[in-house]
Amino acid sequence: SWNWGRGRPSGEVAEVVEEGKAEVTSSKGNTVTRNARDGDPAVKITRNRGNDVVKLAHELNEVKET
């Protein structure tokens, strides 16, 4: 999960990008990117409701193993 206003949306990790750029395309066609940093990878997250997202690892509150 991550903080979004007063909510804490969540999703499933689809990919962890250690080097380079991770990107997803929103339902409106916008491209959202995050550049991986040393020790702070970019994480692609798929969601059942809403757009898929991409976050840096430090932006995530918790990760649960499935």
Notable characteristics:
66 residues, mainly beta, 3-stranded antiparallel beta sheet, two-stranded antiparallel ribbon, 5 strands
Structure description:
This protein has 66 residues and is mainly β. It has one domain (12-59). 0% of the residues lie in helices and 38% in strands. It contains no helices and 5 strands. It has a 3-stranded antiparallel sheet with strand order 1-4-5, with no helix packed on it. A hairpin with a 5-residue loop joins strand 2 (21-25) and strand 3. The model has no long low-confidence stretch (mean pLDDT 89).
What's the quick description here?
The chain is mainly beta and 66 residues long.
Give the topology string: H per helix, E per strand: EEEEE
Number of strands: 5
- Rg (C-alpha, Å): 11 Å
Shape estimate: globular
Distance between the first and last residues' Cα: 14 Å
The computed structural class is mainly beta
* Oligomer class: single chain
Estimate the strand proportion: 35-45%
The level of helicity is under 10%
Domain count: 1
User: Strands of the largest sheet, in order across it?
Assistant: 1-4-5
Largest sheet: 3 strands, antiparallel
Q: Which whole number gives the mean pLDDT?
A: 89
- Unreliable residue stretches: none
